[in-house]
């Protein structure tokens, strides 16, 4: 195949993945809409008859079947995204993260892979709807900044690009899943406080468990972000531009993201911050990442504007 054909195949796989993931997301939405609270078995006085609402097993199993379909479609969409990243790399003859479009496609594939591993290990498929919503948002932003396949800026073509960008993308994927868990925590915690947990939220674990999932994701992502943004990034900058740190807008916002997540972890470990305050702080951290990834690249000129 020619390089143009590889590029066209990559574009087709990206579009197909987006469509499949949209269907998976709507399966989760359908799961929420069809959720039914499982009431305890009730027996009519003086008889052995079970009340009608407890006999319709097909109705109560519908949400579970929808979750299974959604997870299967998410696996398919993730494989398509991985294929899109690989074929984009073949089209550009380099690693597929030289610009915002490639970063978004590859990063979303990593985020969904992290989520699916957690589904396999910890059964967190209850997070699927929110995780897919965040991933589709990132992927849509990336597609909106589509860049034709082409070579990397020559000054940046060193082996440090693999180390730096891979670390950043993996950390961002973990932050993305952590942010989804934080959103779910806030919704479930509020419902628990009001004593109005409906049939949809009953399908989610207790708020405390969701909070722990968010913490684990952010705790693993933080050292990767530290290495990628504050260690390998400056080394790459020195090789490309002759300086380790230049207070470029991208560098500044990467540092801000690091500070917010450092504060989040410090507050949890030393001050015992849990619950809402920690969740809000984690979401602030993810917002700073979005600003660094999208706003800075598109609206603030700097040496990182190409990416």
Automatic annotation (TrEMBL):
Question: Where does it reside?
Answer: Membrane
Residue spans crossing the bilayer: 12-30, 66-86, 98-117, 124-143, 163-187, 219-240, 252-271, 278-300
Tell me which positions the record assigns to the signal sequence: none
**What InterPro entries does UniProt report for this protein, alphabetically?**
Cyt_c_assembly, Cyt_c_biogenesis_CcsA, Cyt_c_biogenesis_CcsA/CcmC
Topology relative to the membrane: Multi-pass membrane protein
Q: Which GO terms describe its biological process?
A: cytochrome complex assembly
Q: Which domain of life is it from?
A: Bacteria
Q: Sorted alphabetically, which keywords does the UniProt record give?
A: Cytochrome c-type biogenesis, Membrane, Transmembrane, Transmembrane helix
**Keyword Disulfide bond in record:** no
Cellular component terms (Gene Ontology): plasma membrane
Where does the Cytochrome c assembly protein domain lie? 111-302
Molecular function via GO:
heme binding
Instruction: Provide the primary localization.
Output: membrane
Q: Which Pfam families match?
A: Cytochrom_C_asm
- Name of the featured protein: C-type cytochrome biogenesis protein CcsB
Q: Which organism is it from?
A: Aeromicrobium phoceense
């Amino acid at each position: 195949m020619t390089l143009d054909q590889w590029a066209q195949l990559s574009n087709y796989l990206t579009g197909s993945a987006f469509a499949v993931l949209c269907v998976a997301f709507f399966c989760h939405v359908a799961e929420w809409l069809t959720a039914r609270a499982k009431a305890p078995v009730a027996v009519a006085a003086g008889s052995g008859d079970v009340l009608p609402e407890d006999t319709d097993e097909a109705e109560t199993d519908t949400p579970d079947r929808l979750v299974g379909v959604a997870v299967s479609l998410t696996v398919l969409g993730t494989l398509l995204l991985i294929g899109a990243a690989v074929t984009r790399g073949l089209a550009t003859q380099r690693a597929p993260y030289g610009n915002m479009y490639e970063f978004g496609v590859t990063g979303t594939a990593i985020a969904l892979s992290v989520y699916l591993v957690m589904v396999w290990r910890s059964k967190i498929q209850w997070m699927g709807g929110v995780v897919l919503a965040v991933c589709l948002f990132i992927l849509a932003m990336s597609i909106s900044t589509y860049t034709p396949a082409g070579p990397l800026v020559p000054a940046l073509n060193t082996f440090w690009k693999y180390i730096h960008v891979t670390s950043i993308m993996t950390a961002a994927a973990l932050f993305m899943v952590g942010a989804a868990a934080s959103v779910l925590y806030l919704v479930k915690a509020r419902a628990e406080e009001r004593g109005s947990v409906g049939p949809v939220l009953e399908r989610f674990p207790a708020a405390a468990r969701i909070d722990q999932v968010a913490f684990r994701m952010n705790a693993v992502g933080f050292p990767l972000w530290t290495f990628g943004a504050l260690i390998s990034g400056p080394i790459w900058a020195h090789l490309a531009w002759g300086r380790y740190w230049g207070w470029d807008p991208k560098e500044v916002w990467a540092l801000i993201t690091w500070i917010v997540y450092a504060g989040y972890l410090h507050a949890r470990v030393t001050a015992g911050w849990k619950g809402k305050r920690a969740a809000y702080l984690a979401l602030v951290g993810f917002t700073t990442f979005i600003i660094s990834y999208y706003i800075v690249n598109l609206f603030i000129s700097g040496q990182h504007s190409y990416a």
